[in-house]
């Protein structure tokens, strides 16, 4: 009998905290300067806007923002920041780590950022995508085809083709899906 071991996924907030602590350790002795903060501030601002905008959008649509219990999603949110990327919250979290590395003037502090993105991209997002596909069916598959996983960069995620190669864009997805494939126009 073959026993299959599953790697238990850590909640993304734990992965983020570990990456942040690793950055702090790696950037020890590197102080934030006014000029480094001036460069980091726009990155942080955009990241917070993506994160907060998407979370607010999920709450407005009365669906879960819990990445551990994706199956509780009541609606497939495809508007707001989710028109540009399927993962604006993770993009926002990654951006905060990038802003921290910039502010601390530490190229080595980018290593935990890369680790964070890799773990989220390889373990968390595929599990979420599987749950969303099971919950929303064709509506999610259409959304997945129309909107990139991270950014509109061809080949940014293995198995996640760039939009240009499919000839589609975010405008193809114009309805909010409910479980069972039922849709309603955005309000």
Short description:
The protein is mainly alpha-helical. It is 50% helix and 3% strand. The chain starts with 11 loop residues before the first helix and ends with a strand.
Low-confidence stretches: 1-5, 161-175, 178-187
| Mean pLDDT over the full residue set | 83
List the secondary-structure elements in sequence, H or E: HHHHHEE
| Percent of residues in beta strands | under 5%
Largest sheet: 2 strands, antiparallel
Q: What is the helix fraction of residues, given as a range? A: 40-55%
Describe it.
The chain has 187 residues and is mostly helical. The protein is 50% helix and 3% strand. It has five helices and two strands. The chain has a two-stranded antiparallel ribbon with strand order 1-2. Strand 1 (175-177) and strand 2 form a beta hairpin. Helix 1 runs parallel beside helix 3 (88-103), helix 1 (12-26) runs antiparallel to helix 4 and helix 2 runs antiparallel to helix 3 (88-103). The radius of gyration is 18 Å and the shape is elongated. 32% of the residues are buried. Mean pLDDT is 83; it is low at 1-5, 161-175 and 178-187.
């Amino acid at each position: 009998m073959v026993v299959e071991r599953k790697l238990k996924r850590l909640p993304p907030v734990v992965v983020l905290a570990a990456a942040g602590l690793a950055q702090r350790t790696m950037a020890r002795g590197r102080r934030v300067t006014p000029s480094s903060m001036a460069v980091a501030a726009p990155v942080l601002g955009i990241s917070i806007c993506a994160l907060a905008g998407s979370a607010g959008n999920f709450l407005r649509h009365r669906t879960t923002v819990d990445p551990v219990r994706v199956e509780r999603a009541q609606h497939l949110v495809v508007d707001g920041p989710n028109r540009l990327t399927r993962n604006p919250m993770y993009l926002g979290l990654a951006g905060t780590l990038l802003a921290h590395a910039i502010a601390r003037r530490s190229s080595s502090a980018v290593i935990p950022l890369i680790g964070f993105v890799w773990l989220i991209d390889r373990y968390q997002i595929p599990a979420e995508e599987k749950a969303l596909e099971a919950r929303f069916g064709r509506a999610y598959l259409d959304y997945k085809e129309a909107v990139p996983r991270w950014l509109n960069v061809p080949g940014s995620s293995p198995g996640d083709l760039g939009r240009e190669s499919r000839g589609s864009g975010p405008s193809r997805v114009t309805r909010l899906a409910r479980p069972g494939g039922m849709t309603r126009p955005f309000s």
